[in-house]
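WARN no homologs supplied; continuing
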Amino acid sequence: MKELVEVIAKALVEHPEEVAVTEREEERTIVVELKVAPSDMGKVIGRQGRIAKAIRTVVKSASSKCDKKVIVDIM
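OK structure emitted
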């Protein structure tokens, strides 16, 4: 999931070198944290959170095979 979020985020932002994605696993949950440059935060979140919601939807669809819940946090 980490690679998927990283590819999507780097395609959206102006400073792809500042994209940092970390992944940690808890019991039945995988938490993916996305950090971008402050100037790119609006591009990742989108109007009324539409892009962030779309990223979460894509990751949720991709994670359906692993039987774990995936949470995407945008820091």
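Residues 50-62 form the longest helix (13 residues).
OK
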